[in-house]
Design brief:
The structure holds three protein chains of three kinds. Chain A is built from four helices and no strands. By secondary structure, chain A is an all-alpha fold. In chain A, helix 1 runs antiparallel to helix 2, helix 2 packs parallel to helix 4 and helix 3 packs antiparallel against helix 4. The termini of chain B are far apart. In chain B, strands 7-6-8-5-9-11 form a six-stranded mixed beta sheet, sandwiched between helices. A five-stranded mixed beta sheet of chain B has the order 2-1-3-10-4. The longest helix of chain B is centred in the C-terminal third of the chain and has 35 residues. Helices cover 79% and strands 0% of the residues of chain C. Chain C has one domain. Classes of the chains: A mainly alpha, B alpha/beta, C mainly alpha. Chains in contact: A-B, A-C, B-C. Chains A and C meet through helix 1, helix 2, helix 3 and helix 4 of A and helix 1, helix 2, helix 3, helix 4 and helix 14 of C. The structure holds sodium ion (NA) (2 copies). The site of one sodium ion (NA) has 6 residues of chain C, from helix 17. Chain C: It comes from Marispirochaeta aestuarii. Chain C: It is a multi-pass membrane protein. Chain C: Keywords: Cell inner membrane, Cell membrane, Membrane, Transmembrane, Transmembrane helix. Chain C: It is found in: Cell inner membrane. Chain C: GO terms for molecular function: transmembrane transporter activity.
């Protein structure tokens, strides 16, 4: 199941990057060809960039590829590491829950505002983090349950 | 420490008040913020402790608006961004040649239209306007002198990203382009664009005099700073301190505007010393060329706003 | 209050919690202590930190490099540099440095360099009889050239948060990038002489010409990027777009890479690489708010100016700070958190902004090859199977070379500031 999710997220992130590059290219291109730049293209490209950041973060989270400092963990016996890993994932889950919850008023606050160059609500930008933390929470709970079942 | 009390706090408590603004040390907003701090702390007998955060330390203007709404910043001194984000239905202020001089600006902001704006911002975003201060008018700098609107034809100009600016410069026959302010010096130097427009302070600070020859005194936009307070913070204060904040907000305008007037003279002199030539411009020709722009955007504002403003100015 | 924030950060690192989340937890601890401040600010800053037009250059420079790589360009660079310098003493080690240098003109990150050039070159060196430790050290040290010679991801970040022209920083990095390569090549020459490392037979002129032709598309990427910026055609972000377009055209039409699935995979890889950096940037941006709110910048400024207000002394103190912080925190986080805080100090004592930006970049890159958190080091250890201790021991002599470059740059500011002044002025 996680493989499927990762595959879907990867396809979305790749497609978003294609969109980002295409928009930026349109912006640069129109400046030279049409004399006058496509202003909104650059601004919306940034939104794709933010979505790539936070959807990409979910992929890294599932694949355990986020950058970590493993000073302590490399020196400790595996049994202790298992316990540490358990503690960390609880702390991470709490953090994600708080950020998820607190991101909702942010989305609401920005939903009345629009991009500068085009009438598109900023909720489409700020919901990226809500979706991202939401997915990470679901995955964390899913992998907890799976671990418990294995015991 | 920040107070946890709800509306109408007690009399012996002290309140910490954070003020965010964009300017670096020495800008009008910075100096005025310091004066505001001094006045508030003195007159509250230290019951309000003001902390200043210049240089956009706490965030970009556009996001400070949300921090005010959500209660992470208590007060801000901001450009028209706060109007664009929190009272867009009244944000006609970016349009060119709405005002002919600074008296007209202050008259409209402090009149009945100002009251409507104030209410809208409070209702929309929980942001309370407590005062205003003028900004230097925006002038056009270039490599060739521009004396009337028809001479703008074909000019490659950098402008900030806003549709009304784009339409205005297109109407004048220019080729507007969006370039970040931080990259503008290089863009001018390399000839990506040949002109830009900004208040004198923003022409002087990044040494645009090295890459531009003329300041064409178009004064096409007379913008202003707005002093705004988070309603979440305001409601924490007891009545007497609320009163004080409102009073000092109103009182800072004179200080701010005097400062600006002196600053404008000073910048003009300095830029001339650096070899920039100041050009008298046929402002009427610009105004004539741009007179339909506000009507093109009328849908984005409350009904009849532009006419109301013209009427209010006519009644001065 | 700040002590709690720092302790939280330390605990997060010790528990092996991802850096981005650790920075977020440190921020959270501050809001727990300040119930008057709503926590909504954390997600707000996460998003606004990533929402930057300038920072879009990060995926663009990464993507251009990845597309080039997928077309086998690293191998072409390897062959060309081998034909060029392979016949000197310690030839393949010299190739390693020169290939990194050329690669750095396409890529903005040390990590891409360590994994791209590293994989090919370490194997070649070990096969020829070089010590693994030495091969790893040469790779790690030369990977620091990547972000110093333009284009550069850390410079995009510094320019973005400090309001310094990214174009000027790029040009300021040209001479230091060349200096790094030269200092290291000289060092490698003497070590190789002493240890009697092998050299290869000299390539004939036609051979050299052939390899040059093969590597030409790669060699011309920095020309496209820098030429575009210098010629006034593009801003750095736009130059990134053009570099991507150029890489696609070269890949599809010159190197005949028609496997579009593979090209799309490069977009996916770049997206993941971007997320890895930008998630930390967003988190660092939210922690930076806490430090701003607590006016740590003023504390730092007062603390340092109490010691001295001589620009060179202040610069050295700041660089020492970055060197220490670089060991435990990755470059992006360091830049987002500390650079805005230090800017008032830098400006008030009169340090040249480009001088500061380029030096900060180099010093932070040194952190990538030091324990405990050194991402280039991790990649190289993974390739070679060395432990971080073994790697560090091999690196020691190269730290001397890196520091020698830093010292030269500190005391001869013209090495950085001269070229931007000549080309851009101001
Ligand atoms: Na580079
Ligand atoms: Na390190």
């Amino acid at each position: 199941m996680e493989k499927k999710l990762v595959r879907i997220l990867e396809t979305i992130c790749g497609a978003f990057l294609v969109a980002m590059v295409a928009l930026l290219f349109a912006q640069v291109g129109t400046r030279y060809i049409l004399q006058g730049s496509l202003l909104w293209a650059g601004e919306i490209a940034v939104w794709f960039f933010v979505w790539i950041t936070y959807l990409g973060a979910v992929i890294l989270y599932i694949n355990k590829k986020h950058i970590i400092v493993d000073i302590l963990t490399t020196f400790l016996p595996e049994k202790v590491n298992k316990t540490i890993e358990m503690i960390s994932s609880v702390i991470i889950l709490i953090f994600l829950l708080i950020v998820f919850k607190e991101s909702i008023p942010v989305v609401i606050s920005y939903s009345k505002q629009t991009a500068t160059s085009i009438a598109l609500s900023k909720k489409y930008l700020f919901s990226s983090l809500t979706v991202s933390t939401g997915l990470m929470i679901l995955y964390t709970i899913y992998s907890f349950i799976r671990k418990l079942r294995r015991r | 420490e920040g107070s946890k009390e709800s509306a109408g706090g007690s009399a012996d408590k002290t309140y910490e008040m954070s003020i965010s603004y964009g300017g670096a040390s020495g800008g009008e907003d910075d100096i005025s913020a310091k004066e505001f701090k001094k006045r508030i702390e003195e007159k509250s007998n230290g019951r309000i402790e003001v902390k200043l955060y210049g240089n956009e330390q706490l965030g970009k203007e556009v996001d400070i608006v949300n921090m005010l709404e959500l209660g992470n910043v208590d007060m801000a001194i901001m450009g028209t961004t706060v109007h664009q984000q929190a009272a867009p239905e009244y944000n006609i202020w970016s349009a060119y040649y709405i005002f002919k001089n600074s008296d007209e600006v202050m008259h409209v902001l402090n009149g009945s239209i100002g009251d409507r704006v104030e209410k809208a911002m409070l209702d929309n975003k929980g942001i309370r306007i407590i005062g205003y201060g003028l900004r230097g008018p925006r002038h056009l700098t270039s490599l060739r002198p521009i004396r009337k609107a028809s001479e703008v034809q074909g000019l490659k100009i950098r402008i900030p990203l806003q549709p009304i600016y784009v339409e205005s410069w297109k109407a004048l026959g220019a080729q507007p382009q969006a370039i970040a302010y931080g990259e503008l010096y290089m863009a001018l130097r390399q000839g990506i664009v040949e002109a830009q427009e900004n208040p004198l302070a923003y022409i002087y600070a990044p040494h645009f005099d090295e890459v531009q020859d003329y300041v064409n005194q178009t004064a096409h936009q007379r913008a202003f700073f707005t002093y705004v307070v988070s309603e979440k913070f305001f409601q924490k204060l007891p009545a007497d301190l609320q009163e004080l904040v409102l009073e000092e907000g109103e009182g800072i305008t004179q200080f701010h505007n005097d400062l600006l007037a002196a600053g404008e003279e000073d910048y003009k002199k300095k830029l001339q010393e650096k070899g920039m030539e100041f050009i008298e411009v046929d402002v009427d020709s610009f105004q004539q060329a741009l007179k339909d722009i506000p009507n093109q955007f009328a849908d984005s504002w409350v009904d009849g706003l532009y006419d109301d403003i013209k009427a209010e100015i006519a009644n001065m | 209050m700040l002590t709690v924030v720092l302790i939280t950060m330390l605990l997060g690192f010790l528990l092996g919690i991802p850096v981005a989340i650790t920075l977020g937890l440190a921020t959270l601890s501050y809001f727990f202590m300040n119930p008057g401040l709503p926590m909504v600010n954390i997600p707000l800053r996460f998003v606004t930190g990533a929402e930057s037009y300038t920072l879009m250059a990060i995926p663009l420079y990464m993507l251009a490099g990845n597309i080039m790589n997928s077309t086998g360009v690293t191998d072409k660079i390897f062959r060309f540099t081998r034909a060029l310098v392979g016949h000197y003493t310690g030839g393949t080690a010299q190739v390693n440095i020169l290939a990194s240098f050329i690669f750095s003109g396409m890529s903005g990150s040390a990590l891409a360099d360590a994994s791209g050039v590293g994989k090919v070159l370490i194997k070649a060196m070990v096969d020829e009889g070089y010590d693994v430790e030495f091969s790893a050290a040469v790779t790690g040290a030369s990977a620091t050239i990547g972000p110093v010679f333009p284009p550069s991801i850390p410079m995009v970040l510094i320019g973005g948060v400090a309001g310094i022209s990214v174009g000027k920083l790029f040009i300021g990095g040209i001479i230091p990038g060349i200096m790094l390569a030269i200092y290291m090549m000289v060092l490698v020459y003497f070590i190789s002489k002493k240890r009697n490392y092998p050299k290869r037979s000299k390539a004939s002129l036609p051979e050299l010409g052939k390899e040059f032709w093969g590597a030409l598309p790669a060699l011309s990427t920095p020309v496209v990027i820098l030429g575009g910026i210098l010629g006034g055609l593009f801003t750095p972000t736009e130059a990134g777009v053009v570099a991507v377009f150029y890489a696609l055209v070269i890949g599809i039409f010159v190197y005949k890479q028609r496997d579009f699935g593979k090209i799309f995979q490069m977009f996916v890889d770049t997206a993941k690489g971007t997320a890895s950096i930008m998630f930390i940037v967003g988190a660092a941006y939210s922690l930076a708010w806490v430090f701003s709110k607590e006016q740590v910048g003023i504390l730092l400024t007062d603390g340092i100016t109490a010691l001295s207000s001589n620009p060179t002394v202040v610069l050295i103190l700041i660089l020492l700070g970055f060197l220490a912080a670089g060991c435990v925190l990755n470059p992006s986080a360091n830049i987002i958190i500390f650079v805005p805080m230090l800017m008032p100090l830098v400006m008030s004592v009169g340090i040249d902004l480009v001088h500061f930006g380029v030096l900060a970049t180099l010093v932070l890159m040194i952190g990538l090859v030091t324990p405990p958190l050194g991402l280039s080091m991790f990649i190289i250890c993974e390739i070679t199977g060395l432990t971080t201790m073994q790697f560090t021991k091999g690196m020691l002599i190269f730290f001397v070379a890196l520091l020698a470059v830093v010292v030269t740059m500190v005391f001869v500011p013209a090495t950085i500031t001269w070229l931007p002044q000549v080309i851009i002025g101001g």
